[in-house]
Design goal:
Oligomer: heterodimer
Structural class of chain B: alpha+beta
Radius of gyration of chain B: 18 Å
Structural class of chain A: alpha+beta
Distance between the termini of chain A: 55 Å
Number of domains of chain B: 3
Strand order of the largest sheet of chain B: 4-5-8-6-7
Number of strands of chain A: 28
Helix content of chain A: 25-40%
Strand order of the largest sheet of chain A: 3-5-1-12-9-10-11
Distance between the termini of chain B: 48 Å
Number of domains of chain A: 3
CATH architecture of the largest domain in chain A: 2-Layer Sandwich
Order of helices and strands of chain B: EHEHEEEHHHHHEEHEEEEEHH
Largest interface: A-B, 24 and 18 residues
Number of helices of chain A: 19
Helix content of chain B: 25-40%
Largest sheet of chain B: 5 strands, antiparallel
Strand content of chain B: 15-25%
Number of helices of chain B: 10
Shape of chain A: globular
Largest sheet of chain A: 7 strands, mixed
CATH class of the largest domain in chain B: Alpha Beta
Shape of chain B: globular
Chain lengths: 786, 262
Amino acid sequence: MPKDGGIGASSKRREDVRFLTGVGNYTDDINIHGQAYVFFLRSDMAHGTINSVDTSAAAGMPGVVQIFTGADFEAVGSIPCGWQVTDKHGEVMQEPRHPVLAHGKVRHVGEPIAAVVAETLEQARDAAEAIELDISELPAVVDMKEALKDGAAKVHDDLNNNLCYDWGFVEENKAATDAAFEAAAHVTTLELVNNRLVANPMEPRVAVGEYARGTDEHTLYTTSQNPHVIRLLMGAFVLGIPEHKLRVVAPDVGGGFGTKIFHYQEEAFCTFAAKACNRPVKWTSSRSEAFVSDAHGRDHVTKIELALDGDNNFTALRTETYANMGAYLSTFAPSVPTWLHGTLMAGNYKTPLIYVNVKAVFTNTVPVDAYRGAGRPEATFQLERVVDKAARELGVDPVALRRQNFITEFPYATPVAVEYDTGDYHATMDKLESMIDRDGFAARRAESEKNGKLRGLGVNCYIEACGIAPSNLVGQLGARAGLYESATVRVNATGGLVVMTGSHSHGQGHETSFAQVVAEMIGIDENMVEIVHGDTSKVPMGMGTYGSRSLAVGGSAMVRATEKIINKAKKIASHLLEASEGDIELKDGAFSVAGTDKSVAWGDVTLAAYVPHNYPLEDIEPGLEETAFYDPSNFTYPSGAYACEVEVDPETGKVTIERFAAADDFGNIVNPMIVTGQVHGGLAQGIGQALLENCSYDENGQLLSASYMDYAMPRADDLPMFDVDHSCQTPCTHNPLGVKGCGEAGAIGSPPSVVNAVVDALQSAGKDVTHIDMPLSPDRVWAAMQ
Amino acid sequence: MYNFEFEKPETVADAVAALAPEDAQALGGGQTLIPTLKQRLASPTTLVSLKGIAEMQGVCKGDDGSICIGGATNHATVAAEAGDYPALAETAAHIGDPAVRNRGTIGGSLANNDPSACYPAAALASGATIVTNSREIAADDYFQGMFTTALEDGEIVTEVRFPVPEKANYQKFVQPASRFALVGVFVAKYSDGVRVAITGASNDGVFRWAEAEAALTANFAPEALDGLSLSGDDMISDLHGTGAYRAHLCNVITKRAVTAAA
């Protein structure tokens, strides 16, 4: 029986009432009396030396409040990077200065050079056009391998070269891995590109800075997934504002997908300028600006090799990846191709030896950072592609080859430094096979062929690591942040609760699912629980939402805080019931004495806490409010098996997805409807990457796909009805909810099965095609067939 | 967007007068012009909307049986009311999305002559007559390369007359991002021969494929196109396909249009 509330119920998303009726409160909805507008003059050149920025004519234009250039920020800190990677020689990565406004050089198209604050946006734009720029163009560094050659132009003159780091993982395994390749019965090699993407959340980025002169307090309203992180990075490292004088608010946020994790120049600028101009200062990104200023995702070039013995057991895996950092290090950029990627290379398989090499490269392009999945899609794609290729080379069933090499015993310590706590890869594969009617595929293929089409079936597995943790470990790995989460549970006198969580909801439905958890623990109606997030003045220091961590880490903090509430409430109840605390049971919102019919309602206990007339004041404080910080002891490891069935039009190369099935293991599930929606969204983005999305630069560093005229986003009619299952559940062993996280799985797990299916379709027609780089657009598929 | 004056005349004569100043610009549905203005890539002093001119609105039937469409008629209206020329109505029904179809006009599309737009293929394949405030222009003379037409400055497309063919069809293979035509082929069979017009493919904008027309005039069947090919050398080559790919698609999509029309 489906539940009608609490954990396991498909409660309707309460936040949708405001989102769907147009009464949300997004950052662009915030308008403050006296507000001025900023327009950023951005570089249209990928690489150049700034000789001069002459603002004299612009300064006299109507409505101009003040114009800023890079020189105004010389005394201001660099936009910081939150992760320091140590390379294979033990050297720390090369880390360039990242100015708020370009100074000395421009390093990518879209980099802000000057900022005009004016009474209206149009006046700011008019004045920006009157700024005279003298920039000498330099050769652009675009291709990563070219960037590393001797004599290549340097993106940063003060660094040794364009190599951010050369990372080896696990370096101690390298010799043994190489030896295993020497001894292998079969080696499958694949070179591939993981295509660069633009995140494109529906809501573009917005920042509003405000300064209160009377109290010296700064407020930044911003489209962020983690307002506390922004407060720390911007306050401590860029502007030098102590946290008690800086409030960061991320109100309703319309999608993030990673690109709203990072601290951006525009946030620092609006905060800085609000004080400098003594005016609130607002910036709203246009969609065109978003293409050249939001951090991009993916952009790896990889060679992967898989060694197998004579019985088709995987014996070793070796990869070499070039990872594009863009022109500057965005907040978590260095971690993505390393600790979020190398650690996942075991996948679902008991490959005993793995060596991963990653060269991170500076280029004259927009910075690249985490995008839904962040490193894990890149790992999954190459692994599941090379396994599929191996199966084809060996003439064995791709599912059977995977099953043969599955990890089956847990906990399992991989050769890439992580320990999977639970999982059942055969179970998700069994479930998948029951969903896809594999036996009927031959008939479906014959039907397609009758219509002149080729049909292919592609399958893949995935493993991901969510809820990045624990803090002391990630600190050793180079994180300059902790990765705990916080929650404060405030119970009101009449029994309603407000939960202030450091997790941030920007589409995930936390306000619904988090309330379900707390309501379940106490046994009250969900509507008695309100979730508050996104405001550093209300919520204890929290780390925000990314890496599918919110329920696993933020939810666990909330559970811990609620447990403290319940423990205290039991003490109050035991006093009211004149019974021993150990005999008090909480069920369905009432405290009762075990074995008796004596009970007291939740609301009577909470009232007593705040009107403590009959109350053990000598033993416990009045009030009912508790805070918990939760630091996870391990990652969580969701896993699954996906299948894609495509039709290819051999005359045009057009790929149509006919069927798509996903069998996921997310551990325990709080709201199945929300989980299904998260998987649907992830699949749409993964399929978008596989078939449509292509962020492409020309050799001069000009972005070719700089608008929706050329950047293809997935539309509803590009996608089939998804068949999604999450009934396979091996609960996480180390968090109190047994949850694993579901936000990124679809985007991680779907690209390889799409490509595997297209290769299967083309090979069915006798085409000698073993790989096509994403996106599998019609022209690429057609060209591969020629 | 820069500031501009806005006028909305009610007659063609008033519109012509309003367009006399050098920097005045006619505005149809604005589906290309407004985004251009928003990006500050154009700075007309005056925008002259043609939407208020009653005589430029609607679909009617001419004495010779042709379909006459007012220059300011939007695509949705053509889709709904040009049923006497089904292939034309179908073409209009698949331009852009509903918002585009309820704003964009046939006159605006033909005046702009985007190399990937649908209407130029329909007009050229139909041998349509482009009627302006001052003259009538045969489609064969009207299209003069991408974004280039026979229109003089300030000349307004008031009406487009389409002779109705015996059989016709438009097939559009879309560019995945914009969903404009990567290659769009309009095939129209008249009693005196077949016309084939292709949009999306060529660096010179919409063009007629003479060899295909001859072959199809002899035999209006897809097989008639076997062995025919266009060179990709002068075709558009971009992120979405090479010239060779577009040239290949021209043949494939023409065959599909013929199959659908036959």
